[in-house]
Amino acid sequence: MESTARDSSAPASSSPAQALINWDLAASTAARLASAGPTLNSAEIGEAVDSLRRLADASVPHVHEITGLEAARDLRDSSVLVVDRASWAKANTQSFAVMLKPAMDKMLESRRGNVSPAAASVSGAITGSQLGAVLAFLSSKVLGQYDPFAALAEGSKAPAAGRLLLVAPNIVAVERELNVTPDDFRLWVCLHEQTHRVQFAAAPWLRHHMLSEIDNLSGHLLGNVDSLMERASAAARSLKDRTATGSTPGRGAILDLLQNPEEKASLSHLTAVMSLLEGHANVVMDAVDASIVPSVRTIRQRFTDRGKDRGVMEKFIRSLLGLDAKMRQYSDGAKFVRAVVDVAGMEGFNRVWESADNLPTEPEIHDAKLWVDRMGL
C-alpha cells in the first residue's frame, strides 16, 4: 500500500548510537519481514487512503466535544499520515533513535576505547536485525499511532508537534475480519488516535517530560551492560517459567530487569502516564453513540472478542513484548478517567493536562480517589 511517510524524515542513522543499534538495518529488516497485508487494487488503495484522511478530520470535532479540550480546535502543528506497514516500522526506528539517543551516547562514551569499530558495527547489525524482527511483528498489529517525537529526529521534516500514523492495511484487514462497516470502523479508530494527538496539543510540555523519563529509565538499564545482559537472561528464564505455569508474564518480565528503587520508580511513572493516555483515548472511543458511529455496538463487541482466538505462538510473542500489559493499561487508565469524571466532571479531570505535577501516580491510577483528593476536587 502506498505510503506518505517514506519521505517524512531523514534516516535515523546519523547518530553515534548507530554503533549500538543499526537503525537503517532495523527499518529494512522490518520491511523485508513484514507481510504487505490484504490484497487491494489501486482503486481500493486510493479509496482507503482518502477515506482515512477524511475520517481523521471528521473525528476532531467529536474529540473536542467529548474531551472539552480547546486544543482540539487547531491541530495544524501536527500532521496525519496514512502509511503501510514498512513505513510504520521505519517511523518507529526514527522515534526510538530520538528516545534512546541520550542514554546510548552516554553508554558509548563510557565504553570508548574498549570496543573496536568492527565489533561495534557487528553489534549494531545484530541489534538492528533483532529490532527489525520485532517491528515486523508489531507492524501487522498496530492500527494507528501518534508519534510526538518525530520532529526531534535529526533532519526530520515532520511538523513541530509530531504526526499521527494510520496503518491502512491493518485497519482494512481488521474491518474485513470483523465484517463491520468500513467507514464506521475507520471513524472509531480515528477517534482513539486523534485523542492522543489532542492530548499532546493540550499539554505541550508532555513530550519533553516523557523523553526525560524515558532517558532516565533507559540510562539506568544501559548504564551497566554486563549487569543488563545478566538481568535480561534472568528475565528470559522467568518469562519461560511464567508461560509454562500459565501465570501472567507481561510487565513482570520487565520488572526482572530492574534492581534499584529509582529504576522501578521510573517504570512506575511511565506506566501511569501511558495508562492515562491510553485510557483517556479509550473513554473517548466509548463515549460515541450510534448518532456518530451507527454500528458502534457491533464494532465494540466484535473487536473485544477477536483477541480470544489468538494462537499459542502469538500469545507468547505478545507476552514477551508486553502487549498484554499494554492492554491492561487501556483498561486501568479508562477506569481511572471514568472514576474522576464521575466525581469532578470532564473539566475537573482536564486538570491532568496542566502540568507534570498533576499527572497521576501508578497507585492513583488504581485508586482515583487518591488523585481527586490530591487535586482538591
TrEMBL record:
The keyword Iron does not apply. InterPro entries: CHP03883_F420-assoc (IPR022454), Zinicin_2 (IPR018766), Zinicin_2_N (IPR042271). It holds the Pfam family Zincin_2. Gene3D superfamilies: Zincin-like metallopeptidase, N-terminal domain (1.20.150.30). Keywords: Hydrolase. GO terms for molecular function: hydrolase activity. SUPFAM superfamilies: Metalloproteases ('zincins'), catalytic domain. Signal peptide: none annotated. Transmembrane segments: none annotated. This is Hydrolase. It comes from Pseudarthrobacter sulfonivorans.
